[in-house]
Amino acid sequence: MIPLMKSTFANEKETRQALVEFITSAPRLSMDRECFQFEREFADWHQRRDSILFNSGGSANLAILMALKNLGRLKAGDRVGFTALTWSTNVMPIIQHGLAPVPLDVSPVTMNAMVEHVAKRLDEVDLQALFITNVLGFTGDLPALADLCRKRRILLLEDNCEALGTRLGGRLSGNFGLAASSSFFVAHHMSTIEGGMAITDDLDLGEMLRIVRANGWDRNLTSEQQAKWRARFDIPNEFEAKYAFYDLGFNLRPTEITGFLGRRQLKYLTEGVRLREENYHFLADVLCRNPIYLPLDRRHIERLSSFAFPVLCRTPQLREAAIKRFTEAGVEVRPMIAGNIQRQPFFRKYVSRVYDLPGADLIHDCGFYFGNYPELTRADLDLLAACLRA
Ligand SMILES: Cc1ncc(COP(=O)(O)O)c(C=O)c1O
Predict the structure, then answer these.
(1) If DSSP codes are grouped into helix, strand and coil, which group holds residue 64?
(2) Closest atom, ligand 1, to C-alpha of 58
(3) Closest approach atom of ligand 1 to CA 61
(4) What is the CA radius of gyration of the chain?
(5) pTM here?
(6) What is the pLDDT of residue 154?
(7) Whole-number Cα distances in Å, 183 to 159, 160, 197
(8) How many CA atoms are closer than 13 Å to the CA of 171, on its beta-carbon side?
């Protein structure tokens, strides 16, 4: 059996043991120093000025858009382009915030929107923001996309929940736009069981993300920031400040367990990315020799941070046969994330306009993936290679 993942953590045994000790001895388990330290360490790892920890990647997405609305940089009705091949909680927050979701097609062989897909959509509609998804470690041509967004004054946001550690154009994915999200759900590149992060170089946005994360209050801001908010709203003293709520927010806080695990798992991230990429190259070499599959194009990517191996068959019938073959061999498989999101029930309920998205449709009908992680053994890799050869 080759499941989607074999363990909850990198270095599972030691991590679980350390977690037990932490829980039994930590003076406090709600968000505190471990979380704040993890934020600093993650920002350094990602070469970003600020990181804000959340209880999930979906929460980070929800909060990024809320913070931009609170700051007046987006307003209800603004059009937000997004990659049609994505995850539900990339698109749902666009709808939940009263923004207008505009799907962009993807190239089947990079699985992402390329600059020509965005340019084509911009010929028909103006976009105020672009919330792209970097799919399963792959990305579009982000340097060109970022240039286009700069020229057209479009806010670029990256949902990097599936591509933590991917590098292209000399930069990490997630570092091309105003902000990006990561997920630390189990089976992602690093796990805090549940958890997510927003990263940005924009300190005003970071400040607002902390307000959004916790009820709309100022508890986790610096003392200078707190003084600014309190003065602006004439909050007379510390007592009143405890329950002063400045703008729209949620409770999306992580716990100290998230921070504790994040700090420890971050130490293994770089090596984990390397091992997963090694597996990826081994399997991709096998896949590209079998004509029933469409090989993916990763020439624009310098380091592919893979946590699942995507397979694109040439027809739906070939996919059906391949899924049967993999499943019978004991390999756990999944659809290519949410496929063409326009075909999902929630999207059809809330959005009436339907775009022609042939690239996303091809992946929806012909794609699937299986897990790729450091714990795959030589025998596992040989079994996967045999399934890909058949
Ligand atoms: C592209 C993308 N965005 C957002 C998320 C949400 O992350 P989480 O499960 O941590 O909420 C996921 C989860 O897999 C994802 O793949």
Answers:
(1) helix
(2) 11
(3) 4
(4) 21
(5) 0.97
(6) 98
(7) 9, 8, 7
(8) 14
State in Å: Cα 300 to ligand 1 middle.
24
Provide the β-strand partners of residue 334. 369
pLDDT < 70 regions, the chain: none
Nearest in space to 195 (alpha carbons), one of 69, 306, 53, 92: 53
Question: What one-character-per-residue DSSP string does 86-100 give?
Answer: S-HHHHHHHHHTT-E
CA distances from 356 to 81, 85, 94, 122 (A): 14, 13, 20, 15
Count CB atoms within 10 A of the CB of residue 22.
Answer: 17
How far is 141 from 159, CA to CA, in rounded Å?
15
How high is the pLDDT of residue 23? Answer: 98
H or E stretch including 279?
helix 256-287
Beta-carbon count within 10 A of 353 CB: 10
- Name 2's bridge partners: 331
Q: Which residues pair with 79 in a beta bridge?
A: 100
> How many Å apart are CA 245 and CA 238, to the nearest integer?
13
Rounded to whole angstroms, the maximal C-alpha distance in the chain is 73
Per-residue model confidence as pLDDT tens digits over 161-203 = 999 999 999 999 999 999 999 999 998 999 999 999 999 999 9
d(CA 271, CA 172): 16
Task: Please say whether the beta carbons of 315 and 369 come within 8 A.
Answer: no
Strands 308-312 and 196-200: unpaired
- CA 132 to CA 18: how far, in whole Å? 37
Domains plus CATH for the chain? 12-263 (3.40.640.10), 269-389 (3.90.1150.10)
Centre of ligand 1 from the C-alpha of residue 215, in Å? 22
Ligand 1 pocket test target in 55, 86, 185 with most atoms within 8 Å of CB = 185
Residue from 93, 92, 172, 161 nearest 133 by CA? 161
Q: Give the Cα separation of 215 and 210 in Å (integer).
A: 9
Cβ atoms 65, 98 nearer than 8 A: no
Hey, is 377 helix, strand or coil?
A: coil
CA atoms within 13 A on the CB side of 194: 10
Q: Which residues line ligand 1 (CB under 6 A)?
A: 56-58, 61, 86-87, 89-90, 133, 159, 161-162, 183, 185, 196, 337
Side chain identity at residue 160, one-letter code = N
